[in-house]
């Protein structure tokens, strides 16, 4: 990994990148596409790889409205959670989506062809033997999780700002039957689905835990909103992990 700067205490800001092993990866879909992504994994203080406690497989917001693997909550999750919570974080661009990492093959398909993208992400986690995979969807990504993510190999799913536009009651019923945990974070001021309505819609999924977040908006803008999201993710994926997550890093940082 990159050389480290002198060890000291660093406040964790929106641009802070904490130590991890980061590698570019490719996902291969059953319909013949190559998708581009990045896998961030925890390391020991000397930079050697460390076995993660769990894995986040992330699905980004709507690519036709600016969503991609670097959407800010996921970028910060990948920058922080390997070091702060011993989690691996897989990010990738769904079909036809571009980011600085590159462009995934194919074309946006409104959540239907993306079923193969979801399967490819879960398969990569399985192939790499990444432990305890949880799916994390944000906005459009929640639709992909609800429609296509009920795979027996996952531990559960976390939804950020679900609009429930493409996902139907039949999809919710499938999750109810699936039985795995479903955590739903709903901003108080969301543009599409707010907490009271979310509780009504998700009531058909007995294991769903709907959490309203006061003052938050659909895009989770601001460091306090991001920290709340990351704390909720860690608290559900790793019960008993100390929270809130630290706001300072006591150690070296990778060089830019």
Q: Oligomeric state of the chains?
A: single chain
* Helix/strand order, N-terminal first: EEEEHEEEHEHEHEHEHE
Low-confidence stretches: 1-6
Individual helix count: 6
What is the terminal separation in angstroms? 12 Å
Helix fraction by DSSP (H/I, runs of at least 4): 25-40%
| Percent of sequence in beta strands | 15-25%
Biggest sheet strand line-up: 2-3-5-4-8-9-10-11
If you compute it from the alpha carbons, what radius of gyration comes out, rounded to the nearest whole angstrom?
17 Å
Question: Helices, strands, pairings?
Answer:
Elements lengths: L7 E4 L9 E8 L5 E8 L12 E6 L12 H14 L1 E6 L5 E2 L2 E2 L11 H13 L5 E6 L1 H9 L7 E5 L8 H10 L3 E6 L7 H7 L6 E6 L9 H15 L10 E4 L5
Parallel strand pairs: 4-5, 4-8, 8-9, 9-10, 10-11
Antiparallel strand pairs: 1-12, 2-3, 3-5, 6-7
Helix pairs in contact: 1-6
Give the key terms:
8-stranded mixed sheet; 256 residues; 27% helix; alpha/beta; two-stranded antiparallel ribbon; globular
Describe the structure.
By secondary structure, the protein is of the alpha/beta class. Helix content is 27%, strand content 25%. The protein has an 8-stranded mixed β-sheet, sandwiched between helices. It has a two-stranded antiparallel sheet with strand order 1-12. A two-stranded antiparallel sheet has the order 6-7. A hairpin with a 5-residue loop joins strand 2 and strand 3 (34-41). Helix 1 (72-85) packs across helix 6 (223-237).
């Amino acid at each position: 990994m990159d050389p480290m700067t002198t060890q000291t205490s660093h406040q964790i800001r929106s641009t802070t990148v904490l130590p991890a092993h980061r590698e570019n990866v490719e996902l291969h879909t059953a319909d013949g596409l190559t998708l581009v992504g990045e896998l961030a994994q925890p390391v020991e203080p000397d930079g050697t790889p460390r076995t993660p406690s769990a894995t986040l497989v992330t699905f980004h917001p709507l690519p036709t409205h600016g969503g991609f693997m670097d959407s800010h909550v996921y970028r910060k999750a990948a920058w922080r959670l390997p070091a702060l919570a011993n989690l691996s974080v897989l990010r990738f661009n769904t079909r036809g989506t571009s980011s600085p990492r590159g462009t995934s093959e194919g074309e946006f398909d409104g959540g239907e062809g993306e079923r193969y993208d979801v399967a490819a992400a879960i398969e990569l986690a399985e192939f790499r033997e990444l432990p305890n995979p949880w799916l994390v969807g944000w906005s459009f990504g929640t639709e992909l999780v609800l429609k296509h993510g009920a795979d027996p190999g996952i531990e559960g799913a976390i939804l950020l700002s679900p609009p429930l536009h493409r996902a139907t009651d039949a999809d919710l019923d499938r999750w109810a039957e699936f039985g795995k945990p479903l955590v739903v974070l709903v901003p108080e001021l969301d543009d599409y689905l707010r907490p009271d309505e979310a509780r009504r819609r998700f009531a058909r999924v007995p294991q769903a835990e709907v959490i309203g977040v006061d003052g938050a908006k659909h895009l989770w803008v601001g460091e306090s909103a991001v920290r709340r999201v990351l704390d909720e993710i860690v608290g559900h994926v790793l019960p008993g992990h100390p929270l809130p997550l630290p706001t300072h890093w006591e150690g070296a940082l990778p060089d830019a």
